[in-house]
Specification:
about 40% helix, alpha+beta, Nuclear Transport Factor 2, Chain: A, signal
Length: about 180
Amino acid sequence: MFKRFIAAIAVIATLSTPVFAAEFTDEQLEGLAARIESFDAAMKASDMSEVMDVVPPKVLDKIAANFNVTTEQLIEATQQQMDQVMKDVEIVSFAMDLEAAEYFETADGTPYALIPTETVMDLGEAGGKVKATSSTLGMFDEETWYLVRVEDAQQVAILKEVYPAFVDVEFPTGSMEPVTE
């Protein structure tokens, strides 16, 4: 009876723990590094088409469906919005710290990484410089790495809806603070 009780507790503990440390191959880690590098280049060039390419297709499709537009229309509208915002905002620096990333698996074995991310923006006269600190989800799906902002509650809700393996994963919150020089 006692052995069954201990076994039951072990099963419950396993099911209630959403993430486990994960082992990634060198090829997977190189793929993540390449994905981050291409994303960084796209951010610096304000190329929203390339930026959106790192978002999992299921997430893009869900967002497009929520707005009753095609994925292509969503990407185009996002590019227009970004162009408008970037008239008043300058990205001073953007970096994902892959060396400090943490690697996990969901309970069903879906591999992912949480990558510390820092963005410094100059909001101009409206707000000066601010530093946003967050984590970016590096998600390995069908042999491809995708990147997802996890400080945005709406984005996380959509992620969890289209990727149920992440339902029990708690993502770190981000922060924003003024940069004083």
